[in-house]
Amino acid sequence: MKQMLSLTKALADETRLRTLMLLSSGELCLCQLIDVLELSPSTISKHMSILYDAGLIHRRKEGRWHYYRLAEQDTTPAAREALRWVISHLEDDPALHRDAKKLCCTRKKDPQELTACYSGK
Amino acid sequence: MKQMLSLTKALADETRLRTLMLLSSGELCLCQLIDVLELSPSTISKHMSILYDAGLIHRRKEGRWHYYRLAEQDTTPAAREALRWVISHLEDDPALHRDAKKLCCTRKKDPQELTACYSGK
DNA sequence: CCGATACTTCGTCAACTAACGAAGTGTATC
DNA sequence: GATACACTTCGTTAGTTGACGAAGTATCGG
Questions:
Q1: Is there a contact between A4 and B90 if contact means CB atoms under 8 Å apart?
Q2: CATH code at A25?
Q3: Which domain holds residue B53?
Q4: Is strand C less than 7 A from the beta carbon of A69?
Q5: Cα(A121)–Cα(B93) distance, rounded to whole angstroms?
């Protein structure tokens, strides 16, 4: 019950659903998510820890960068099924096309440009 | 996106998950849910409307009684899959055995006894 | 080892949510 | 048609959540 509640609560937020859809296209680091979602680093970091605690995403540290991807074999069946459910019903969502498009631009940017969001543009 | 959020938000509450599991054993009226969940009529009624708006349950009126059951053909694929997901991962949950047991007693009671919860025991 | 970078944690505040009782709605029963 | 019953809706309140900036942690470059 506790595990299911942490899963459903993790999924019950628009920003977190957007994040999962962004991650469905592959691994991303926090600064890339900041760039696409246009929210403060602390806010997104908090969202990531909620998704992580629920077992929905995997985190990997490489130097200063923290990379996130959707959880796969390394989590519970409940979380894997939740991911499949969410993604299959959101992948054609028109409201998320903007995010997907923005992500394309973000992927092309230099790390230089991305870190600009910290130094107040 | 909006539909998915209403689904995930509907599932992100312990009382509503308990309710869905109770309904997985068959149709129930509000007074039976009140008896098992031990919450006020207005609170449970509100929960039911949230589950209904999300497309997770079906409501049927018969005289004064309002009967609820899990949605089936009469809802979206997303809601049907959500129900299957939740139920499959909660059906063996030890924390919910109490509810299931209590429901057995409730089903055996007279309507008389159930309405007692309104008239202040 | 000093500053810069890429986060995370903490404290605060506004917005949302679940609980309740009181009042309202619709349906049987007398 | 008055009363009782089975809810639903409304207004209030306490607790939760999401947003932010400020401060803290860990890593890298000079």
A1: yes
A2: 1.10.10.10
A3: 2-115
A4: no
A5: 50
Question: pLDDT digit string (tens) for B18-61?
Answer: 999 999 999 999 999 999 999 999 999 999 999 999 999 999 99
Domain count, chain B: 1
How far A104 CA sits from the closest chain B CA (Å)? Answer: 21
On strand D, nucleotides with any atom < 7 Å from a protein CB are 5-11, 17-23, 26-28
pLDDT of residue B121: 39
Spell out the SS3 assignment of chain B: CHHHHHHHHHHCCHHHHHHHHHHCCCCEEHHHHHHHHCCCHHHHHHHHHHHHHCCCEEEEEECCEEEEEECCCCCCHHHHHHHHHHHHHHCCCHHHHHHHHHHHHHHHCCHHHHHCCCCCC
Mean of pLDDT over chain B: 91
What distance in Å separates residue A49's CA from the closest CA in chain B?
Answer: 17
CA of residue A112 to C1' of nucleotide C4, angstroms: 13
Distance between CA B87 and CA B83 in Å, rounded? Answer: 6
